[in-house]
Design brief:
Helices cover 59% and strands 13% of the residues. By secondary structure, the protein is of the alpha/beta class. It has a 5-stranded parallel sheet with strand order 2-3-1-4-5, with helices on both faces. Helix 6 packs across helix 7. The chain is globular. The N terminus is likely disordered. Bound molecules: BIS(adenosine)-5'-pentaphosphate and magnesium ion. The site of magnesium ion has 5 residues, from helix 1.
């Protein structure tokens, strides 16, 4: 059996959204709904930092300042969990890719292994609501007002272009994330069910993707 045919029915979903948009909250709920695995780059990084691993020591300053961690570290860290999730039903990936460069690198590796993303979900939330949510939560050093504003700026510059990248591949679902949690989940689930029933378009078959 080739890697390409490892898990043809696996569901492979991606959450894109600004800091505080609700990626982690919704990814957890969607993973439960579809019986798949939530893989969050930020959660994995924070676990490395808490455990004091070599990766943790390398990335701590980046995370605390709201800067992106170098691509090579992220790709190495995610490879195993993503492949494992793909073998057990699929994944909801939250926090990766964060740049078009990361998406293209993932396309080269994940695409050739048959574990590329099928659908990207954009959670759209206005900036003042993002800031309100993160200040109310105060997760750690990166949830101070200055760092929150910097993270939003990094998102606008480096991550927002991903929306066009996925839209051009006909893989993007748009969701208004500024509603109560259960309403947002419902809207995502309905759109995902519809998308999974639809036969893939030629463009998707040609360029399916990560
Ligand atoms: P990461 O952990 O990915 O953080 P983030 O993108 O900044 O987003 P958050 O986790 O803060 O928000 P979220 O969208 O998950 O929302 P949540 O559900 O928590 O990344 C952290 C850092 O790691 C980065 O800055 C970078 O340094 C590094 N990093 C990670 N991935 C990387 C990568 N690929 N490349 C390079 N570096 C990387 O919700 C937020 C709050 O709002 C919660 O309190 C929640 O309860 C609440 N809430 C959620 N939904 C709602 C709702 N509908 N209504 C009201 N409140 C809500
Ligand atoms: Mg998160």
């Amino acid at each position: 059996m080739t890697m390409q045919s490892a898990a043809p029915r696996a569901k492979r979903i991606l959450m894109v959204g600004a800091p505080g948009a609700g990626k982690g909250t919704q990814a957890d709920l969607i993973a439960k709904q579809f019986g798949i695995t939530h893989v969050a780059s930020g959660d994995l990084l924070r676990r490395h930092i808490a455990d004091g691993t070599t990766i943790g020591k390398t990335v701590e300053t980046y995370v605390n300042k709201g800067e992106l961690v170098p691509d090579a570290i992220i790709m190495d860290m995610l490879r195993k969990p993503v492949l494992k999730a793909n073998e057990t039903g699929g994944y909801v990936l939250d926090g990766f890719p964060r740049t078009v460069e990361q998406a293209e690198a993932a396309y080269r590796t994940a695409g050739s292994l048959g574990v590329g993303v099928q659908i990207a979900i954009h959670l759209d939330v206005p900036e003042d609501e993002l800031i309100r949510r993160m200040l109310a939560r105060a997760r750690g050093a990166d949830d101070t007002e200055d760092v929150i504003r910097h993270r939003i700026k990094v998102y606008e510059e480096k991550t927002r272009p991903l929306l066009d990248y996925y839209a051009q591949r006909e893989l993007l679902i748009q969701v208004n994330g500024a509603r109560p949690v259960t309403e947002v989940t419902w809207s995502i689930v309905v759109q995902l069910q519809r998308a999974f029933k639809r036969p893939a378009t030629q463009a998707q078959r040609d360029r399916a993707v990560a």
